[in-house]
Amino acid sequence: AMEDDYERQRLENIRRNEAKLVELGLLKAAAETTPPKASKSKPKKPKTPVKHDESTLRRSTRIRNVPPEFKHTDLPDDSDAGDEDGEDDQGEGKQRGKARKLSAADSVGAVPTASEEALRRCQEVLQAYQAHFAEQQAQLATLPADTAVDRWKVEAVHRWGAEVLVNKGADFDWKRFVESRNMRPFCQLSPYALLQERYAGDGWRLLVACTLMGRVSSAPVKERCIMGFFAAYPTPSAAFHLTPGDVKPIIASLGLFPERLAAVVDITYQWLTRPDFQVDLKEHKIKGIGEFGVASFHLFGLSDLSVETQDRCLNTYIKWRRGLD
Fold first, then answer.
1. Are 206 and 129 in contact (CB under 8 A)?
2. Please, what is the angle between helix 244-251 and helix 219-232, to 10°?
3. In terms of C-beta density within 10 A (0-12 exposed, 13-18 middle, 19 or more buried), how is residue 220 classed?
4. 3-state DSSP call for residue 13?
5. Distance CA 297, CA 295 (A)
């Protein structure tokens, strides 16, 4: 009964509302209105597939089982990418791929020759160092003959700064100290103008350059940062007092700043303190100097062509040197 009363009230409300709408002219009388007819939907016709010319379609070679067009032997040697130094080629970068490792003989000749501008800059650095060294030797030649022992001490200070005097006793062998740090670089510049050739006359600079150039593919970035560092710290004694805040703006774009800074500090300390300087991967290991740095030190600094290395650029340089004999 309650539901019937609710339904009667609902219908009454509907009629009253419709009458009010008719009175206002907003709606025709309910008797004049008819419910809209339901629209009949037409069935959709199936689409006719469009035919394409198979010769014009782009298909994945993998899906079509077509072998790739490149050969493994076309890729450069990537065998040195994972060593301790992480050194990269002297050019603008390396291609990466799962290619077989090339032998030194295969990779020789892959290093491009340097531009005239690069050769000129390299020659300028070499000439500047040679002039500086000749000036130091001329000053040492003016010392009295009875100061033979002091002569080696004076030469060490002239070349590497006053910090070489730290923790050296009265009986220290300065001759051994200096002679173990004398480099024997090759007099002729290679057509590749490698960065190591610029600093081959100074063992400390050579090792620092090797640790700064590692894992950097951009030659302009390497050149700018390394030259900027040596402009700010020309000697190991100057670098002995460096601070991270001063060095970071100079070499930060090389990346791996903490590792590079730690390596530079250890190279500098060992250069200033070791009585007989040697560098290798065992007893005379230096932080941050791996196979690439050791090979570069012996090859460019000591002109030792017997070094064995997996680095493509070094092997190219070795073959060029041997071809001159």
1. no
2. 150
3. exposed
4. helix
5. 5
Residue 53 has pLDDT above 90, yes or no: no
Above 70 in pLDDT, residue 75? no
Q: Which residues neighbour 13 within 8 Å (Cβ) at sequence distance 6 or greater?
A: none
Q: Residue holding tokens 């100079």?
A: 250
* Integer Cα distance of 146 and 231 in angstroms: 36
Confidence of residue 54 (pLDDT cuts 50, 70, 90): low
Secondary structure percentages of the chain, helix, strand, coil, to 5: 50, 0, 50
Written as one string, the DSSP assignment of 211-256 is HHHTT---HHHHHHHHHHHHHH--SHHHHTT--HHHHHHHHGGGS-
Tokens of 88: 């990269």
pLDDT higher than threshold 70 for residue 322: yes
Name the phi and psi angles at 105, rounded to 5: -65, -35
281, 291 contact by CB (below 8 A): yes
Go through 2-39 and write b for each residue having 16 or more CB atoms within 10 A of its CB, e for each that does not. Answer: eeeeeeeeeeeeeeeeeeeeeeeeeeeeeeeeeeeeee
